Amino acid sequence: MEIVEPGRMRPVLRAPLAQTTLSSILAVCPGVNVDGNNHAEDDPRIQIDPVFGPTARVMRGFASDDDVRLRAAAGGGLSALAIYLVESGTVDFILHVAASKFAPMRSTRHVSFDRAQVMEGAQSRYGPVAPLEDVVELLDRGQRFAFIGKPCDVNALRNLARIDGRVNELVPYMMTFSCGGFPDELYYTRFLSRQGVRFEDLTEFRYRGYGFPGPIYARTRDGREVKETYLEFRTYPWTSQFRCKICPDHSGEQADITVMDDWPGGRPIRDERDGFVIIQARTKRGEKLLIDAHRAGYLRLEESSLGAIYSTQPHQIPRKRGAIARLAALVVTGARLPRFRRIRLLKAGLSANPWFHLRTFFGTVGRMLRGDGREAASFARGGE
Ligand SMILES: Cc1cc2nc3c(=O)[nH]c(=O)nc-3n(C[C@H](O)[C@H](O)[C@H](O)COP(=O)(O)OP(=O)(O)OC[C@H]3O[C@@H](n4cnc5c(N)ncnc54)[C@H](O)[C@@H]3O)c2cc1C
Fold first, then answer.
1. What is the rounded distance in angstroms from the CA atom of residue 249 to the CA atom of residue 253?
2. What are the CA-CA distances from residue 118 to residues 31, 179, 332 (Å)?
3. What's the gap between Cα 60 and its chain centre?
4. Is the dihedral of CA 90, 92, 94, 99 positive or negative?
5. DSSP of 200-262
6. 309 CB under 6 A from ligand 1?
7. Is the full-model pTM beyond 0.90?
8. C-alpha 368 to ligand 1 mean position (Å)
9. Which residue has a Cα nearest atom 8 of ligand 1?
10. Which of 53, 201, 309, 363 is paired with 335 by a 20 to 30 Å CA distance?
């Protein structure tokens, strides 16, 4: 996986692929295949919300450890769960992401065996990264691990589970966060230009954290520090890949646990405050993990509700409700369709009015006619 203009991660072909390999890749790729069934729906105790998916329990809280809470993206919910899992010996390691040591604006897959390593990977990384790039080699180790990634990363791992039985055996927990998408890397290189900082000189780059949400921050070799507050930074226009615009699963319906920012209205009104997260346990297994981590003192939690998710994630509601109209727009413009199955698109769509669907449909038709849905078909290297 490599970064290509304008700052997107794409697969690069190193050698010609056998047809069977290509078929496996397409079966696993979350850009092509999303199957919303995480088997939670087989359990009558799980409530299925058409927009926010399977829900066993919703809680609100933060990491009990002040340092975890401060350094994390929001309240340190994911980091606290990860630390609990490794310190209790429930899993051998956590697979997630962290800043690249060589190019800190970029991110790499990260494997954590202890608290310090988990915290190296804390915070949201709003840039492209492929946490599963060597997951098959990690499965070869035969150790148990928990996975933290974007909803699409979880989609990929669930897809892989269908063709590699070791996933269900060795990965007992998959955790994610509500994902509003992320901008092309160009958005961040512009931040560097505004601040007069060069990409090559960076020694640290944080997208948020140290406050809730905390600033975007960069430090250079000569010790210079630059930052912009979250509220200021987010006023600059951004572009992102088309696939995120038709995403049917922004809230990570296939995960055991989804964690999200506790901002009623979906946006922070202050640049810094003590972090809080809303945690949606989707499976009974996820719910048990949450309660165990709480009882063991890793998380401070109180009961919350699906209503709190609707209130803190208003931007995700039209995304799910409109996914069906966006797919219809792909059909009429002759585009290739991804396979989105068992993710309740029709049911979610029915809760929106016809004007909303018409606007969404024509919006996507417009994007397609402008060519937004296209990009160079091949990233093959060496003329492959
Ligand atoms: C691209 C992106 C979009 C988001 N959009 C929303 C949103 O619309 N609404 C909302 O409520 N929350 C959103 N979040 C999540 C939010 O920023 C917090 O991460 C979330 O609330 C969890 O906070 P925390 O303190 O528990 O996380 P932390 O304890 O800081 O842990 C975060 C974990 O996520 C992993 N991680 C971070 N970035 C990535 C990445 N790019 N790919 C894979 N794994 C990653 C880290 O390795 C770490 O383990 C988004 C995050 C990202 C990365």
1. 6
2. 28, 20, 46
3. 19
4. positive
5. GGEEEEESS-SSSS--EEEEETT--EEEE-HHHHTTS-----HHHHT-S-TT-TTSSEEEEE-
6. no
7. yes
8. 29
9. 180
10. 53
